[in-house]
Write a structure and sequence with these properties.
This protein is 27% helix and 32% strand. With 255 residues, it is of the alpha/beta class.
Length: 255
């Protein structure tokens, strides 16, 4: 199935190079090109693309403001957006606006292919999942598939599927994968709202677990419960969060 795509960049050579690289992606169908924010609005409204390659620095309005504005227009369905730029300082704001990926120029064909693959996955997911209403701003969309943040001098695009558990540490959250941990300045509540509740369960006010990695829930002394993960990690489960665990763990979660 073809993915209707729009390319937006104020530089003609950049648009031509991207179009050439996208020829290797058989399902990408380019509906048009835009060189300004106004042209982006017109093309998105007329063509209703599923994917938009958008330069961050656009005449009239930067690409991030374009995303924010389009997301608030009731008559426009916001496509998946892959941002392209020569500057890395916009990555965190791009994540906040739920951009699919962030390509730093000059990017390779392999890096572009990875971004297109991520867009494909998100498009397929949105086609098979009912929309949800985000409790923070009323926008309709799907749960996030990756978390973007700075860690040890890197900008990481971490797939949520790699997360095993999340714990609260004062004004931060610690995200734990199989091999690394990352400290983010964020609240548990805001992070929980972005995660699919069929995959992630809050078991304590300071802990969220990925159900794919839950081995069992065991009763301890004095009626307390502990969540045992497949790697041996144990997390306390408070009584107020026990209501949904039986239902969710009765389903099959493949790793």
């Amino acid at each position: 199935m073809a993915i209707l795509t729009v390319i937006a960049d104020d530089e003609l050579l950049a648009r031509q190079k991207l179009r050439q690289l996208l020829r290797a992606e058989a399902d990408i169908d380019i509906a048009g090109e835009a060189s300004s924010a106004r042209e982006v609005y017109e093309l998105v409204q007329e063509a209703s693309p599923q994917l938009l390659f958008l330069d961050v620095r656009m005449p009239g309005m930067d690409g991030l403001d374009v995303i924010a504005d389009l997301s608030m227009r009731d008559a426009v369905k916001l496509p998946r957006v892959i941002l392209t730029t020569a500057y890395d300082q916009y990555a965190l704001r791009a994540f906040e606006l739920n951009a699919t990926d962030y390509l730093l120029k000059p990017f390779t064909a392999e890096r572009l292919h990875a971004a297109v693959e991520r867009a494909r996955d998100e498009i397929k997911l949105s086609d098979h999942q009912p929309d949800r209403v985000d409790g923070k701003d009323g926008q309709v969309g799907t749960y996030t598939a990756r978390i973007v943040f700075k860690s040890r001098g890197r900008i990481l695009f971490l797939p949520v599927a790699d997360i095993r558990w999340i714990s609260a540490e004062e004004n931060y959250v610690r995200i734990c994968t199989g091999t690394e941990t990352h400290l983010l300045r964020e609240t548990m509540t805001s992070l929980e709202q972005r995660l699919d509740p069929n995959l992630f369960l809050r078991v304590h006010r300071s802990a969220i677990v990925n159900l794919r990695y839950v081995k069992e829930v065991r009763s301890e002394s004095r009626g307390d419960f502990m969540v045992h993960l497949t790697n041996g990690q144990k997390l306390a489960m408070s009584r107020s969060y026990r209501a949904r665990i039986g239902e969710l763990l009765s389903r099959s979660y493949s790793s």
